[in-house]
C-alpha cells in the first residue's frame, strides 16, 4: 500500500455505531508514515471500527513502553530497531565505532534488552502486544568487510535472541516472523537513509507498509478456521485408488510424488493442533479404509474423523462431515484437485472456502500448504485442542449408545466428573477463546477484545467460572465459561458459553447449581439476548420461562430447583488454589 | 502546468482533508495550521507517488506554499 492509498482509507468516515479501537505505537523513532499505514491496515482489518493510533516520544522506547502501560488501548505494536537497543547502532549517531565503543555497545545493549523485556511483559498485562524487529541491517561498525560476520555482531545477535527467547511464550505477546516480513519487504529496500537523517524515520514507505501489515496480522490475528475436508485421489496421494490399487498410490521422492507427503504432514500437524480433519472421497468405502490403513501414510487414522466415502455428490459427503463436527461451513476449508468438485461443494456451501490442490504443480501445492497454515495457524495449542478429535469420536459413540436406553439411566452410568474453577482474574486464555468463538450455547453473542476482557475483572464482584468435564468415554477438557458479578443476594451473569460437544449431559444445570450454592444467591440475573444462532441456549432458558423475553432473564433459586433434573456429576470446586469435592 | 496544479490540488486534499478546495491554491505554511514538518513530509511523499517522481526533500525545504511547490514541480518534471 502506498501512502496515497493509506491517506484515502484513513479519510473514509468511520461507521457512526462503530467501536473505538485504540492502538499504541510506542516506537523509538519518528513513526511518520508507519503511523498512517498502521491506521490504514487497522481500518481494513476492522472496517466497522473507528481506529486511532497513539504514538510516543522520539528516542525513548523505554519511556514510551512505560507510559503505554497506563494508556487504555486495545493493543500495542512495538517495532524495535538496533538504534533502540543502543542509539550508537544507528546512522544518526556520531559516537564513533572504536573497539572500546563497540564493546560498550554490547554491554549496554544487553542491559537495555533486559529492561525492555521487563517493560514488554508488564505491558502484556494490560493489552495484547506485537513485537517486530530489528528489521533494518546494522551499519558496518566493525573492521570486517560487510560480507563477513564477527564476534561483535554475533554477540549482539546472541543478546537479541536471548531477549526474544525470554519474552516468547509470554501470554498476550506475539513476535512477528522475520520470514513473513522478508517475503513482503526485501532487506535491501527497507532503510530510507535520507528520511532517517532528515526526519528520524528510518523506513522506506514500502517497508513501513510491510511492518504495518505484518504487525496488524500479529496483533489481531483472524480467528483460525476449525476444520479441513480433503479429497484423497491426486490430493492426499498421487494416483486414483480405484485404478491403481492400494499399493499403487504414492507420496514419496522415488515416485516423484513427495509433494503429497508434504501435504500429509501438514494435515497431521494441523490435526495435532486441534484442527478437525475429515475426508470426502468418491471411492469404494472398503477400499479406501484399507488404503488409509497403510502404515507408511503420514496422516494417521487417529488424525481423521470422519471418513466419508461414497459415489454420491461431494457436497453430500461434506454435509455429513459438517453434521458430525457440528460447526458452520464458514469455519471449514475444502481441498480437492477437481475444479468441478470444488464448484459443486462451493455452490452448496458458499461460505466454505474451497481450494484446489494443484496436483500437476508442486510449487503451487507448496503455496497451498503455506496458505492452509495461514488459515489454521494459532498462537498456542491448548489441551482442549489436542483432545478435540478424540472427544468428537466419543460424542458420536455416546449418541449411538444414548439412543438405546432412557436418558437418566444413561447419564447415571456416565461416571461424569465436573471441575469448576472460580477465579477473580481473567488470565485463562482458553476461557477467553471459548467466549469469543461459541455461537450456539451463548448467552448473548457478545465478543470481547483482550482489553474488554481485562477491564471486566476490574468491576466489583467480577468472577470467572470455567467448567472442565470428563466421563467414562474420556475428557472433553474445558467446555464451559461463565462471567459474572456477585452482589449481596444476586449474581449478574454477563457471559455464558458452553461448547456444543458438551450438550445433553446436564452440565448447564450443574453450572447454575454451583453458582447458586457458591454465592448463596436467591436469584440469577442473565444479560440474555436472543441471537440468530443461540437456539440451544434459548431452548434451555425456555424451561424456566416458556414466554422467553427477547433480552434479560431472571431465574430464582425456587424456579431452578423446581426445574432442574436429577444430576449425577461428581463435582470438584476449585478457587484460589483450594480444592473442594 | 494546469495538470500539475490539478494533481497537486488532489495531493493537498489528501494531506489536509479539512482544507476547503477553493483555499488550496492560496495555501501556505502560514495560513494552514496543520502544515507542520510531519505534514510537509507527508505532502512531499504523496506528491512523489502521484507524479511518479523521486522527491529530493532538501530541494523542497523552502517550498512552503502551494504556489512555490507548483513552481518547483514545473522545473523538476
Number of domain modules of chain B: 1
Quaternary state, please?
heterodimer
Radius of gyration of chain B: 11 Å
CATH architecture name of chain B: Orthogonal Bundle
Would you tell me the overall average pLDDT of chain B?
A: 90
Description:
The complex is a heterodimer of chains A (581) and B (77). Chain A is an alpha/beta fold and 581 residues long. Chain A is built from 22 helices and 19 strands. Chain A folds into three domains: 3-219, Rossmann fold (3-Layer(aba) Sandwich), CATH 3.40.50; 227-376, HAD superfamily/HAD-like (Rossmann fold, 3-Layer(aba) Sandwich); 402-580, 3-Layer(aba) Sandwich (Aminopeptidase). In chain A, strand 13 and strand 14 (474-486) form a beta hairpin. With 77 residues, chain B is an all-alpha fold. Chain B has three helices and no strands. Chain B has helices at 2-15, 37-51, 66-76. The mean pLDDT of chain B is 90. The chains are: A alpha/beta (581), B mainly alpha (77). The A-B interface holds A 2-4, 7-8, 11, 30, 32-33, 36, 194-195, 198-199, 201, 205 and B 14-15, 17, 37-38, 41-42, 45-46, 49-50, 57-58.
